[in-house]
Amino acid sequence: MQLETNTASYHISFGSGLLQSIGQCITDLFDFLPTKVIVLSDDKVAPLYGQTVCTSVQTVVPDTKIFVVQHGEQSKSLTVYDQVVGYMLENNFDRKSLVIALGGGVVGDLAGFVAATYMRGIPFIQVPTTILAHDSSVGGKVAINHPLGKNTIGAFYQPKAVIYDVDTLKTLPKEQLDSGIAEVVKHGHIHSPELIDWLMENYYKIDQLNQATLADMLYRSCLVKANIVSQDEREQGIRAYLNFGHTIGHSIESALGYGNIPHGIAVAIGMVTAAIIGYQKGITPKHVLDQVISVNKFLGLPMRLPKEVTYDKILQYIQYDKKNVGGFLTFVLLKDIGAPEIFKGITKEEVLDALYYQLNIALDVTKG
């Protein structure tokens, strides 16, 4: 799959055994080979796949090093960013160096932000190892977190390539599988109703980590993301639709502390909230709200806020959402499945009403 934007063109590869061919990929991508390569990974992924990637890369760039961060959202911080940049400076990485992000969305976001800012920008390659990262690795959004807001320090910076080896999904915990599927659901709700139908029909194979089905799912979902990003690289219009469910989702992550709930799980809850807000405002038809709820129910995704998260906390953190304009809350709402729209000026009272409604839905589903 090829993604074309105003500033970049790059290939997104899906398949088995791709980690062993990353060295050859680098040769194909660059007219002049990088002087040095840093493989940025985390302490869960590096022991599984770090050596394989480094061995492949070292066949073409002998000066290849791996830098391992702690897994989880806490690594998307200014502190860890400073550690990575300091390591690169101490080891004489220059403007002709290359960053490889080997891991999930946290590693991809951190590595991409390092690449975007180190010496005013050096190339990087995304090598995602989770289903969730199929969303974050495509499109060039890179960022780290601030204690008051998720992804508030970042840039738009496209990778040179995205290499998706589905073999890495064999080691994925169930919670991370569900987290990734939630982002696939999001793509279906905002753009592709047929993707929702396909997901429901093939969920058993996906849950069993059938490689061919996983690769097909990732391709279908990335096709949605690539289509949107190619039209709106810097989120001046339709790319904002990809934030469906994220306003509440990010607030949940902030309220719980980064890393204490998988991103996609928080977004799944946020999609239900957004559908309720739309319904209560007369924007989202009842059958659309019912479908959002039924999809979450079928896939075993949550319906309500975690018990540890109070409404006050949500209202506190929602005000820091980077999509807000002029102090007004901004939400992506659904006029229909596949027909999103951005609405500015949603009030805290409307959010609170939706959260109360959402609690009752969750209780009814539990009783049923």
Automatic annotation (TrEMBL):
GO terms for molecular function: 3-dehydroquinate synthase activity; metal ion binding; nucleotide binding. Binds 1 divalent metal cation per subunit. Can use either Co(2+) or Zn(2+). Pfam families: DHQ_synthase (PF01761), DHQS_C (PF24621). One of its GO terms (cellular component) is cytoplasm. NAD(+) binds at G105, V106, V107, G108, D109, T129, T130, K141, K150, T168, L169, K170, T171. Residues 180-324 form the 3-dehydroquinate synthase C-terminal domain. Its EC number is 4.2.3.4. It is an enzyme of class 4 (lyase). Its cofactor is Co(2+); Zn(2+); NAD(+). Zn(2+) binds at E183, H246, H263. Pathway: Metabolic intermediate biosynthesis; chorismate biosynthesis; chorismate from D-erythrose 4-phosphate and phosphoenolpyruvate: step 2/7. Keywords: Amino-acid biosynthesis, Aromatic amino acid biosynthesis, Cobalt, Cytoplasm, Lyase, Metal-binding, NAD, Nucleotide-binding, Zinc. It catalyses: 7-phospho-2-dehydro-3-deoxy-D-arabino-heptonate = 3-dehydroquinate + phosphate. Residues 67-177 form the 3-dehydroquinate synthase N-terminal domain. GO terms for biological process: amino acid biosynthetic process; aromatic amino acid family biosynthetic process; chorismate biosynthetic process. It is found in: Cytoplasm. Catalyzes the conversion of 3-deoxy-D-arabino-heptulosonate 7-phosphate (DAHP) to dehydroquinate (DHQ). Belongs to the sugar phosphate cyclases superfamily. Dehydroquinate synthase family. HAMAP family: DHQ_synthase. This is 3-dehydroquinate synthase.
